[in-house]
């Protein structure tokens, strides 16, 4: 399976609201609190995209699909610092250049669990809880 054939889609964050909890385990599965790498299509041209880090905020098992991973895209572009849809999480080992990163809050990436390329890092509890608080206060997560 090529990275471009991985089933993934963006959904409004409130639409997938659920209980969020911190549970990272570097066991080969993508767990809440981990930063993993997967193919993310560009919104303006879904036929193109790139491999990028994603903060796992949940999992979604349903009858139609296998286990899906729910994640927030990360970006190191500093112009996100003034955008309310992006939240600063600081630096970490997921970025080889140690640049400050931001997670996109208004869209959740839903990725087939088989589409996760690798585990990259664990976001510490304090920063994960700050992201979770934003999801709870702004998008109805519990």
From TrEMBL:
<keyword id="KW-1277">Toxin-antitoxin system</keyword>
<dbReference type="InterPro" id="IPR011067">
    <property type="entry name" value="Plasmid_toxin/cell-grow_inhib"/>
</dbReference>
<dbReference type="InterPro" id="IPR003477">
    <property type="entry name" value="PemK-like"/>
</dbReference>
<dbReference type="GO" id="GO:0003677">
    <property type="term" value="F:DNA binding"/>
</dbReference>
<protein>
    <recommendedName>
        <fullName>PemK-like protein</fullName>
    </recommendedName>
</protein>
<comment type="similarity">
    <text>Belongs to the PemK/MazF family.</text>
</comment>
<dbReference type="Pfam" id="PF02452">
    <property type="entry name" value="PemK_toxin"/>
</dbReference>
